[in-house]
Amino acid sequence: MFAIGIVASVIGVIIALAIDWFPPQASAEAQTVDFLYDVTLVIAVPIFVLVMAVAIYSVVRYRAAPGDLRDAEPVHGNTRLEVVWVLIPFVIVTVLAIYSWIGLESIEAQQPNPIKINVIAQQFAWRFEYPAEGGAPPKQTTNLVLPINRPVEFKLNSEDVIHSFWVPAFRVKSDVVPGIETQIRTTPSREGAWPVVCTELCGIGHSTMRQSARVVGATDFAAWREAGPGAVATARDDQAEGRRLFAGAGCAGCHALADAGAAAATGPPLGGLAQVAPSRAPGVPLEEYVRRSIVDPKNVVVSGYSPEGMPGNYNQQLSPREIDTLVNYLVRASQQTGGRAQ
Amino acid sequence: MAAKLTAPGWYRAALFMVLGLVAGITLVAGLRTLLGYDRLFEGETVTTVCLITVPMAFLVGIGAFDYWFRWASGAPTLAEDHSGHGAHSWKDYFRVNTDHKVIGIQYICTTFVFFVLGGLMAMVIRAELAAPGTQFVDPNTYNGLFSVHASLMIFLFIIPVFAGIANYVIPLMIGAPDMAFPRLNALSFWMLPVAGVMMVASFFAPGGAFATGWTAYAPLSAQMPLGQTFFTVAVQFAGASSIATALNFLVTIITMRAPGMTFWRMPLLVWANFTTSLLVVIATPFIAGSQFFILLDRALGMNFFDNASGGDILMYQHVFWFYSHPAVYIMMLPGFGIVSEVVSANSRKPIFGYRMMAFSLMAIVLLGFTVWAHHMFVSGMFSWLRVPMMITTLLIAVPTGIKIFSWLATLWKGVIHLTTPMLFALGFITMFTLGGISGIMLGLIPVVIHVSDTYFVVAHIHYVLFGGSVFTIFAGIYFWFPKMTGRMYNEMLGKVHFWLSFVFFNLTFGPMHLVGIDGMPRRVADYAEEFATMNAIISASAFLFGISFFVFLYNMVASWRSGPRAVGNPWRAHTLEWQVSSPPPLFNFDHIPTVVGGPYEYGVPGAQHGVFRDHEPEEAPAAGRGGRQPVVAE
Questions:
Q1: What's the structural domain count of chain A?
Q2: Can you tell me the ipTM of this complex?
Q3: Residue A63 domain-assigned?
Q4: Chain A touched by B44 (CB under 8 Å)
Q5: Once rounded to an integer, what is the mean pLDDT over residues A109-133?
Q6: How do A210-216 and A144-147 pair as beta strands?
Q7: Which residues contact A238 (CB under 8 A, 6 or more apart)?
Q8: pTM value > 0.90
Q9: Strand ranges (DSSP E) for chain A?
Q10: Residue A71 Cα distances to A112, B5, B314, B348, angstroms
Q11: Which domain, by its residues, includes A164?
Q12: Which of chain A's residues have a Cβ under 8 Å away from the Cβ of B212?
């Protein structure tokens, strides 16, 4: 049984380590976390195998034949054995605790020359504020762009309820609590677009509160940083930019729109607006109607929907240019079929 | 008719509920008139008040308070003629009854009804999650579904079903004729359906069911629509029920043990419920407090959790988890007790290290109060508290390990009978070990920063609460089924049930570890495309897992109606409840036994646990209905 146990443990450890558990490592901290997890696996698998081996062996070896009414030999305990199985787990968890503590200190350590970004959470979108730096003016955006290999400090604030800021590829997370400024330190180490996910239930659109963090090279970052808000969009790719805003600002969390692949039913559907707008707001041009719905939603309520459903601050959240883009996009996209308004 | 409306029972309960409704509306309208408000009938206010008055009226109407009201008003109390004791037909289970055996069965059946409801909600959840996007329910309904699912499973199934099993078994085990406070016991039971119906009824509230999870974090829960109030008030009823029962267990166990039943001769199930009751009595007032804060914020605008008005949002989590972490031990320790009984009797060996088993329960109780903030490692609380809480959290592995290893040592060189309860106990030992290991991982701060609030946590909680608690519940139900009903369940179906649940449990919840670590958050109605395949597999397994429950249900119903008659002691166990007939006599023992030794002295020549006056265990009548012969398992 002992030999089988060791073989099973080795096989178990190999399988456990072979499984690709984590998302890509895109920060300097990720390695520490993943390694600690692997260490735990290497300790845990033999313990689990031990429990299984003793249980299975006992059941197979000592199983009573039908009609066997014997009692077993009474053994009430064994002090030496009991001391052993108190001490060994004690040592294991002590080592794990110390090791985790060291790991925690290292992943949260202050790094030189960090870029400081304010993250503002609200139901159901993230936005990001970059302070003025070098020649670049302050910038507020719904796009999170980070330079590679430069430490970042996120300062997290919430405007309504508790959210939680998680970038799985960075292995970092913190709740975003109204009234408290929480903080995350990380150093992106791999270029790419990594999901930003809200992991604290924050209301009806919680599952749609997903954006992404784009890690780029230092020169690309400087170029993006110096470009004014909205300068990224040209008339030609307005459509794509509008679609991106529709998802990034959280619209897709509540509204259905065929062009954007959105099917949510919390807010009114946005297909066929040209047909329904005149009856909802007689005499108002379609473009103006859409704009008002975005910047002042409390006063443009479709009957049957709650006036509290939509955040009232898109005016501050999006730049004027972004709102223009979104309005143009919606006016055009809503003329397509699918996701029609009733 | 008039007599029916004045006597305790369902007619009077219905009448009183109407009166309670009228009283609630009048109270609100009256106060609003006095205060000079314009709208006298404001829907939310009326509902909030009626959620308290109507259930109270129901409890009075059904008769839970009759004796006390007479006594308190100085009227002559009705002499206790024991007519409200015992059940003679199925209808007696629908009345206020003071017999602990009737109450135990009332508890178990009621909680299983809510278990089925919660399980059906889980099926809808898995149907929705079978593919990305919106399939069957909108996000609001989805959030309501998982919130009500968790609340029912925790407050209306796992916690009370253990109270139900213990209600039936504990007085018998310690050689007592009943619980210490039989009327309080009845009241404790009747508060449960109130809480459960209220949680389910929240689906009909405007704005939908409460949708903030069973954790109901502020400030979201203070802002959500009316359904949230249903949760807030229902938790008060479930909590009051829980506290009253725990108090009852404590007093019963401390004062009503048979002569000779010292603490060190108590069966481990009694120890388990003793320690659980300590946890309940100390911790449950904290969740009641947390929900009262929410209720006051919602109903009276008290701003406990409005940070702009000086409220403290993180305080909610501290108060909530100060109950809700011990609550996981409230949901686990009784299961430890059940497994000890089952493993010992089915291995024909004394429990290995009996005293350490009892001490480890006490250690878990003490440590259990020092770890609550490990649920808050990423909450933004003061960061210095994290490392101490990590250390205490990991230390709980030590007493838990003692239990696992002691059960294994009990199996070693035993004479093992693989009955259905034993299979579930073994399934528990292995699955709970996995849940314990993922628990250790969740205690390591760098790891938990990544996996908190993900499906990894969902997997962990189901490994400890389903693979852990619910497997022990099944073990306990099968084990004491012959005692409770006087009939034997079908062993073959029991084994089919075990293997189906064991396999599909793992296929359902195992993959959740993977998607969680890989980046899928929990409590989401929709998820990224990359998790689609895994979720499809999980959903398919979940449906089969759900179906496996019907094997159990059929077995229980069919066996209770027409299973073969069971003998008094089908497991040849030594504890006292097995020494009386199945089901036991009205007052449990014709003569209270004297306890002369330990409860698990299997294989010790001449050893006895309890001595009865006639020195002979009583047997049920040999010939059952339909001429079936009594059976002894395996």
A1: 3
A2: 0.89
A3: no
A4: no
A5: 92
A6: parallel
A7: A325, A328, A329
A8: no
A9: 115-122, 125-130, 139-141, 144-147, 152-158, 163-167, 172-176, 182-186, 192-198, 210-216, 256-257, 262-263
A10: 70, 58, 56, 5
A11: 115-226
A12: 201
